[in-house]
Amino acid sequence: MQRSGVNFLGEFGMNYTRYFWLAALVIGTGLPLASQTPYVSPGTTVSVSAPAFDLDQPSDSVLTIKKRVDEVHVLFIATDRHGKFVRNLNEGDFAFLDDNKPPQSINNFLRQTDLPLELGLLVDTSGSVRSRFDFEREAATGFLQRTLRANYDKAFVMGFSSHSHVTQDFTDNVALLSQGVNSLHSGGGTALYDAIYRACHDKFMKSKDSSDRPTRRAIIVISDGEDNQSEVSKAQALEMAERAEVIVYAISTDDSGLILRGDKVLQDLADATGGRAFFPFKMKDVKSAFAAIETELRSQYVVSYLPADFDADGRYRSIEITALKKDLQVRARKGYYAPRQ
Fold first, then answer.
1. Rounded to whole angstroms, what are the CA distances from 280 to 135, 145, 192, 264?
2. Phi and psi for 280 in degrees, rounded to 5?
3. Which CATH number fits domain 117-297: 1.20.58.220, 3.40.50.410, 1.10.760.10, 3.30.450.40?
4. Helices 174-182 + 133-147 axis angle, to 10
5. Are strands 316-323 and 300-306 parallel, antiparallel or unpaired?
6. How much helix, strand and coil, in percent to the nearest 5, is found in the chain?
7. Each residue of 131-155: pLDDT tens digit?
């Protein structure tokens, strides 16, 4: 899939270049400049600069320390041939490729069942989903009640038809989120891609840039996938999801029993981000889909690594994680955008 569209200077899956400045006052000690340089851990890129000495100016020099950490974090799951989650694997059970090359180094590998959650519930309120709209609102509310932990996880609610609107911003208060879900009303066209783009850009990117700890970010889309109103393309929506490190889970509202165009859209959105698409035919299966998402969010691994031959050129880099044990399948996002400098 060609990934074109609006390019932002944010990165996906990367810790941006971070700068910190250390001022050191050099007061005519006669010591060489190197002796004023603080200790910096191995692997850190450091540049040291100082103004040229001028006998007519004060002998103050400023050491500029520039630290850059290019580390990719990838959440993924492993399942057996029956689709059951496998939670007891180690780093050696997987092979990792970044841009078709093994990483320079693996910095961390963890089984992550308890990372903080940031969820976006995106509910299609267009006229095409009216038939089981009330049931889906009820199922979504139950999911939030079971999944969110006070003072640890948070979620927001967004409804979308021709336009998207947030009925409840990020909070851990399930009662407020339930009110946000219940305030949604059906009617209008469908601008699915715009909703995903806006949720990732306006909510998750801001949250990601201010976060100082690993977090699971996921969108749960309840829709038939039949977009007919968006200003951005599917590729642009996916690019923004990748930049924001968001997994997309989709629950189809189509109850026709047929495989329609919107089903492929939902599947593509889930596959590209490492999520999963559900196509419940009966209303009771909607609750089962939410239960499966809840379980999956608690069954993930996270790997952190430094990519080989990395350039901060803003281009898309693929990710491939393969299980070395027979009959195991891995699901992860397909790639990320390097930062641009």
1. 13, 21, 19, 14
2. -75, 125
3. 3.40.50.410
4. 170
5. unpaired
6. 25, 25, 45
7. 678 888 889 999 999 999 999 999 9
Give the count of beta carbons closer than 10 Å to the beta carbon of residue 223. Answer: 28
Quote the CA–CA distance of 139 and 132 in Å, as a whole number: 11
Residue whose token pair is 């047929």: 258
Q: Within the chain, which residue ranges are assigned CATH 3.40.50.410?
A: 117-297
CB 163 within 8 A of CB 189: no
Q: Residue holding tokens 């889309």?
A: 221
Both tokens of residue 195?
């909703």
Q: Which residues contact 162 (CB under 8 A, 6 or more apart)?
A: 126, 188, 189, 190, 191, 229
Q: Rounded mean pLDDT of 199-224?
A: 87
Determine the Cα–Cα distance for residues 181 and 171; give it in Å rounded to an integer: 13
Q: What is the pLDDT of residues 224-239, one digit of tens each?
A: 999 999 999 999 999 9
Regarding predicted confidence, which is higher, 130 or 179? 179
Of the candidates 80, 73, 56, 90, the one whose C-alpha atom is nearest the C-alpha of residue 15 is 73
User: 73 with 110: CB under 8 angstroms?
Assistant: no
CB 202 within 8 A of CB 239: no
Q: Classify 66 as helix, strand or coil.
A: strand
